[in-house]
Hints:
Layout: H1 2-67
Amino acid sequence: MADELAMQAIDRIERALARIEATSKRAAATLQADGELIELRHAHHTLRAQVEGAIERIDRMLVAGEGA
């Protein structure tokens, strides 16, 4: 009887450990995805600034061309 109770307890502990491990893997994947999102946002802001600068230069060229 005691052996059976001990085996049941060990089984519950192993299932709990499996759930903890699965949760920690999902959390690690989320952290990695968050890091990738931060990098993507940074790249987006950099590219957006470059495009805005190019549009401003084109606008100045068009204005200068109208005055010529």
